[in-house]
From TrEMBL:
Bilayer-spanning residue ranges: 7-23, 54-77, 84-106, 118-138
Ranges in a coiled coil: none
InterPro entries in alphabetical order: ExosoTase_F-assoc_memb
Protein name per its UniProtKB record: Exosortase F system-associated protein
NCBIfam families: flavo_near_exo
Keyword Membrane recorded: yes
Source organism: Apibacter muscae
Keyword terms, alphabetized: Membrane, Transmembrane, Transmembrane helix
Length: 152
C-alpha cells in the first residue's frame, strides 16, 4: 500500500513538472522563450528584457521545479539525507548557471548562442533531477557492493 502511494505521489509530481512546462509562457516572464524557438536565433538580435523581472521569473520557475524534484527524490528514495544533498546540488547549480546565463546575455552572448541556450535549459528544465536519480542509484550500488556485510 505504501509503495502504491509513493508511486502515485511521484506520478503527481511529474505531472506537476509537465504542467510547469506546458504553461511556461503564461506563468513566467521570459522574452528568450520565443527567441530560442526560432531556428535562426544565432543570427538575430537578442530581445530586450527587464533584468530584475527575468531574474525573479527564472528564480520562481527554478524554485517550483526544485520543490517538485525534491519531492520526487524524497518519495523515490525515502531518505532525508539524499533530499538535503540534492537541495544543495540544485542550489549550487542555480547560482553557477544563473550567473553564467546573465553574464552571457548581458555581454551579447559572449559565451555563444548555443551554450547560452543550454545554460537556460538547465535553469528552466528539471535537468538536475534527471542527473541525480541515476547518480544516487549508482552511489547506493557502490555503497552496497563495498559494504563489509555484502556477500559475493
Amino acid at each position: 500500500m505504501i509503495k502504491t502511494i509513493k508511486i502515485f505521489g511521484i506520478i503527481i509530481f511529474i505531472l506537476g513538472l509537465i504542467l510547469v512546462r506546458k504553461y511556461e509562457s503564461s506563468l513566467f516572464y521570459d522574452p528568450f522563450l520565443e527567441f530560442f524557438k526560432k531556428s535562426n536565433f544565432n543570427h538575430l538580435s537578442p530581445p530586450n528584457f527587464h533584468t530584475i523581472r527575468l531574474f525573479i521569473s527564472l528564480s520562481l520557475r527554478y524554485s517550483l521545479n526544485l520543490i517538485l524534484s525534491l519531492l520526487i527524490i524524497y518519495l523515490w528514495f525515502g531518505d532525508k539525507k539524499i533530499s538535503v544533498f540534492s537541495f544543495y546540488i540544485f542550489t549550487i547549480g542555480f547560482a553557477i548557471f544563473c550567473a553564467l546565463y546573465f553574464v552571457s546575455i548581458y555581454t551579447n552572448f559572449s559565451l555563444g548562442y548555443m551554450p547560452t541556450f543550454y545554460i537556460r535549459r538547465i535553469l528552466i528544465q528539471p535537468i538536475f533531477l534527471l542527473i541525480l536519480i541515476p547518480a544516487i542509484y549508482y552511489h547506493k550500488h557502490l555503497k552496497k557492493t563495498n559494504s563489509p556485510n555484502y556477500s559475493r
